[in-house]
User: Which sequence fits this backbone?
């Protein structure tokens, strides 16, 4: 290390200084670890709270019954279904599983990034273990929108974390660790394709560029990686559709259906550059956190005991703020901003500022081509995660903002050794936790398509065929209680096929245990929604269509016309209204919506025969 580090080590050898250093070091460790554990426990507790009837309902329907659909672009339902079965369909445990898996994969990747700063001594390995544990909280920024159930988005992020770990440790020279790295790239690539093919294509392109620039190209290892991808892909295709041709047909149909919808997913529409706008309040928070964290590290590096304790005091205050946010003693009353997730960029910005201020010689001398290319790789991965969406890439990519954090650590980690590593990493880790908690709290104060902050939810409701208990707002709880009571009085039985013509109620179908036929989410509101619904129902057996109940919402903002039943040989007069209920305000993101009604098929035999007759 440089002169500063040598002076600190000399100071540490002075009589009476060793204990003071150790006390501060252990104090920093305790603050950061306690904060990290607190965030994890907080998320586990809140996994019982809230429910979104649109996207999250769709995810759960897909995971619970993936075999109902012979077309799909993402196969996340098949990959998460074994865990859903293992957890006996418990939505709360499924959410906890999603949180823990994301955290563990984040922990693995950040540990690889910071390990160069620690020696192989047992004591330093323990320090590295805790430092990486504390930074891994950054991966949980994914849940800031508060749709905590597993989805194609969570699988996409988890796949990119695995690929990132593989690319970071893969080398041109073959070794045991190198082989593990290439295997991880293969597994992660397969998972990325199963989650989101557009992101898989993007990460494949970026990975090749990274391997070339970092001089890691190894034909044998690349062949091994390709074999892993092919074997896993072929195996999943056989398990899902029985053949590669069947799987290809599934994907081709899904692409056709996506074009029918007109949702902005064509190649020309997804290949674009988006802009972003940071709010004034977020900018102020960004600057304040940047200054406080930089001062903390500056004070901790001082040779003066009083100044050093001042640095520890600032870190302690930051930890207290983390818990004040966790316990709701501090609640940020700010308007919703689509780009709030960019606040996490304060961590890499602080790391770069510290590198430029204190460690610039060490940083310049220790940065290799591999480290630089890894930093650029991590900077691009949030956009790879978002690639293919019809929303703003910066907005969606911020859910994978953990990679931006890693890019900053990649720059600074090689310059740090000994106590310099502790005095720099731990304040940065606590800064990470503070930012993540701020963003998570915002998500919980304005949960996705829900009317109230999660902390105000107080009504427990059992949903789904397995009776998972969730804590919801009073309005949402009453809505679901009315739905469940109405369907039971109407004689509806779990597992019965149902067609959702409200355009936005997959969560209702999941809650009553209905088999959502045609699509896991019969999505409305797009120019091609009706055509997609017609084509999707054409793939459903006539017997299921004839016996399917229908959920309608006349004149709803995303409703699909009930005239669609004519396309499979029925007519609206073949159904009887068995129950109706008021739709909760805020459900689906709309303040006011019409009543919903449950329709029962009354001429199943005739409709079945008519359906058979009109089909080719």
Assistant:
């Amino acid at each position: 290390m440089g002169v500063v580090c040598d002076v600190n080590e000399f100071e540490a050898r002075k009589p009476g200084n060793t204990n003071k250093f150790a006390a501060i070091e252990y104090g920093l460790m305790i603050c950061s670890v306690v904060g990290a554990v607190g965030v994890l426990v907080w998320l586990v507790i809140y996994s019982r709270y809230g429910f979104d009837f649109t996207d999250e309902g769709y995810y759960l329907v897909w995971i619970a019954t993936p075999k109902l659909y012979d077309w799909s672009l993402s196969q996340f339902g098949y990959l998460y279904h074994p865990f859903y079965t293992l957890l006996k369909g418990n939505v709360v445990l499924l959410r906890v599983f999603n949180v823990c898996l994301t955290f563990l994969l984040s922990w693995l990747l950040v540990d690889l990034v910071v390990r160069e700063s620690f020696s192989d001594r047992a004591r330093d390995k323990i320090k590295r273990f805790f430092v990486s544990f504390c930074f891994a909280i950054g991966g949980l920024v994914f849940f800031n929108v508060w749709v905590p159930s597993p989805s194609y988005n969570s699988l996409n992020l988890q796949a990119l974390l695995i690929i990132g770990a593989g690319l970071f440790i893969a080398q041109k020279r073959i070794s045991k660790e190198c082989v593990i790295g290439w295997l991880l790239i293969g597994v992660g690539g397969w998972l990325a394709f199963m989650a989101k093919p557009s992101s898989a294509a993007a990460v494949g392109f970026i990975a090749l560029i990274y391997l070339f620039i970092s001089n890691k190209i190894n034909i044998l290892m690349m062949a091994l990686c390709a074999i892993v991808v092919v074997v896993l892909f072929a195996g999943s295709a056989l398990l899902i559709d029985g053949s590669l041709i069947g799987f290809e047909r599934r994907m081709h149909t899904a692409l056709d259906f996506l074009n029918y919808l007109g949702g902005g997913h064509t190649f020309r529409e997804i290949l674009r550059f988006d802009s972003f706008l940071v709010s004034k309040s977020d900018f102020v928070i960004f600057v304040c956190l940047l200054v406080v964290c930089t001062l903390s590290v500056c004070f901790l590096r001082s040779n003066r005991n009083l100044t050093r304790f001042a640095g520890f005091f600032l870190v302690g205050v930051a930890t207290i703020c983390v818990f004040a946010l966790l316990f709701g003693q501090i609640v940020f009353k700010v308007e919703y901003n689509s780009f709030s997730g960019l606040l996490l960029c304060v961590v890499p910005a602080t790391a770069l500022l510290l590198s430029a201020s204190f460690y610039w010689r060490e940083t310049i001398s220790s940065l290799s081509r591999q480290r630089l290319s890894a930093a650029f790789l991590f900077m691009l991965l949030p956009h790879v995660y978002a690639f293919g969406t019809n929303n703003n890439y910066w907005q969606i990519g911020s859910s994978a903002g953990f990679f931006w954090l890693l890019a900053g650590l990649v720059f600074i980690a090689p310059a740090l050794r000994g106590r310099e590593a502790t005095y720099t990493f731990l304040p940065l880790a606590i800064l990470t936790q503070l930012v993540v908690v701020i963003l998570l709290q915002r998500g919980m104060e304005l949960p996705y398509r829900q009317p109230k902050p999660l902390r105000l939810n107080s009504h427990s409701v059992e949903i789904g065929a397995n009776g998972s208990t969730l804590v919801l707002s009073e309005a949402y709880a009453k809505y679901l209680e009315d739905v469940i009571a109405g369907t039971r009085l109407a004689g509806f039985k779990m597992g019965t096929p149902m067609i959702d013509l409200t355009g936005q109620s997959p969560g209702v179908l999941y809650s009553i245990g209905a088999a959502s036929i045609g699509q896991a989410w019969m999505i409305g509101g797009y120019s091609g929604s009706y055509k997609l619904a017609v084509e999707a129902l054409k793939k459903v057996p006539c017997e299921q269509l004839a016996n399917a109940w229908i959920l309608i919402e006349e004149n709803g903002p995303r409703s699909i016309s009930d005239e669609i039943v004519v396309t499979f040989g029925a007519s609206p007069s073949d159904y009887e209204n068995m129950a109706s209920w008021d739709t909760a305000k805020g459900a689906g993101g709309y303040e006011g919506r019409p009543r919903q009604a449950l329709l029962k098929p009354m001429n199943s035999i005739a409709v079945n025969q008519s359906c058979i007759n009109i089909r080719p």
Q: What stands out?
A: Residues 17-46 form the longest helix (30 residues). The chain has a mean pLDDT of 90.
